[in-house]
């Protein structure tokens, strides 16, 4: 795993020993890492670089970048391990690299060879193994290697699940917002209707008050007339002599 962007080191398990490859960048390919490790341990043969995440493994292509492959694991990038596996005949006395014991206190370091960078636009190599034998000997035909199952990118799956949960939560919130908007429109309609009724009642009350005032004035006028009629002197009746 990468120890940091500034150090640019890649830790690889080789025969049960953790080794550190220095000078690794985002453009460093698996083939360059394998060549550097093979030169450091002094072995020849065919090797592959395997990316291990928990209990799943994926065999990297020669032109694939280990740094980029580790970055695609998202939040699980710190759990990624790289294992250098020899696909040729096993060496006697060498422990298998399938089981990775705890790292040594002083890991062995290897540096990438100072060779020119291959062109990025060339066609990628189809083989899944790297031949690191002597340069003077022509490599023979290689038996077909079984393809390792592709490990799903757990970080991307987790991000997609989070987005799906957020979309469902937003849909629920939008449904609730539409419901409360409809309730608000109903309340506003009921309020307008109540205001119209109140205005009608106010107009009827004013009309009845005016009628009561008119009737009160008529009653007072009649009372005054009756009072005047009661106080007026009556004419005397004639008497016979």
From TrEMBL:
<dbReference type="Pfam" id="PF00788">
    <property type="entry name" value="RA"/>
</dbReference>
<dbReference type="InterPro" id="IPR000159">
    <property type="entry name" value="RA_dom"/>
</dbReference>
<dbReference type="GO" id="GO:0007165">
    <property type="term" value="P:signal transduction"/>
</dbReference>
<keyword id="KW-0053">Apoptosis</keyword>
<feature type="region of interest" description="Disordered">
    <location>
        <begin position="88"/>
        <end position="119"/>
    </location>
</feature>
<protein>
    <recommendedName>
        <fullName>Ras association domain-containing protein 7</fullName>
    </recommendedName>
</protein>
<keyword id="KW-0832">Ubl conjugation</keyword>
<dbReference type="InterPro" id="IPR033593">
    <property type="entry name" value="N-RASSF"/>
</dbReference>
<dbReference type="InterPro" id="IPR033631">
    <property type="entry name" value="RASSF7_RA"/>
</dbReference>
<comment type="subunit">
    <text>Interacts with MAP2K7 and GTP-bound NRAS.</text>
</comment>
<feature type="domain" description="Ras-associating">
    <location>
        <begin position="10"/>
        <end position="89"/>
    </location>
</feature>
<keyword id="KW-0963">Cytoplasm</keyword>
<comment type="function">
    <text>Negatively regulates stress-induced JNK activation and apoptosis by promoting MAP2K7 phosphorylation and inhibiting its ability to activate JNK. Following prolonged stress, anti-apoptotic effect stops because of degradation of RASSF7 protein via the ubiquitin-proteasome pathway. Required for the activation of AURKB and chromosomal congression during mitosis where it stimulates microtubule polymerization.</text>
</comment>
<dbReference type="InterPro" id="IPR029071">
    <property type="entry name" value="Ubiquitin-like_domsf"/>
</dbReference>
<keyword id="KW-0206">Cytoskeleton</keyword>
<feature type="coiled-coil region">
    <location>
        <begin position="177"/>
        <end position="232"/>
    </location>
</feature>
<dbReference type="GO" id="GO:0006915">
    <property type="term" value="P:apoptotic process"/>
</dbReference>
<keyword id="KW-0175">Coiled coil</keyword>
<dbReference type="GO" id="GO:0005813">
    <property type="term" value="C:centrosome"/>
</dbReference>
């Amino acid at each position: 795993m990468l120890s940091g962007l500034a150090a640019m080191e890649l830790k690889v398990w080789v025969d049960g020993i953790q080794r550190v490859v220095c000078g690794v960048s985002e453009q460093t390919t698996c083939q360059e890492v394998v060549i550097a490790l093979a030169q450091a341990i002094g072995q020849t043969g065919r090797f592959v670089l395997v990316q291990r995440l928990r209990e799943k493994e994926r065999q990297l292509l020669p032109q694939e970048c280990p740094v980029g492959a580790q970055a695609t694991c998202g939040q699980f990038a710190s759990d990624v391990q790289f294992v250098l596996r020899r696909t040729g005949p096993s060496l006697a006395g060498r422990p298998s690299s399938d089981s990775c014991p705890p790292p040594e206190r002083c890991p062995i370091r290897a540096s990438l060879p100072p060779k020119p960078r291959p062109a990025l636009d060339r066609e990628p190599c189809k083989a899944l193994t790297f031949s690191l034998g002597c340069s003077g000997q022509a490599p023979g035909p290689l038996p077909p290697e079984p393809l390792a199952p592709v490990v799903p990118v757990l970080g991307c799956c987790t991000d997609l699940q989070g987005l799906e949960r957020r979309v469902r939560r937003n849909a629920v919130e939008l449904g609730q917002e539409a419901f409360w908007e409809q309730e608000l429109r109903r309340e506003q309609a009921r309020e307008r209707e109540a205001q119209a009724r109140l205005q009608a009642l106010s107009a009827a009350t004013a009309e009845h008050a005016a009628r009561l005032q008119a009737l009160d004035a008529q009653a007072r006028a009649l009372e005054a007339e009756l009072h005047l009629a009661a106080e007026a002197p009556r004419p005397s009746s004639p008497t016979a002599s």
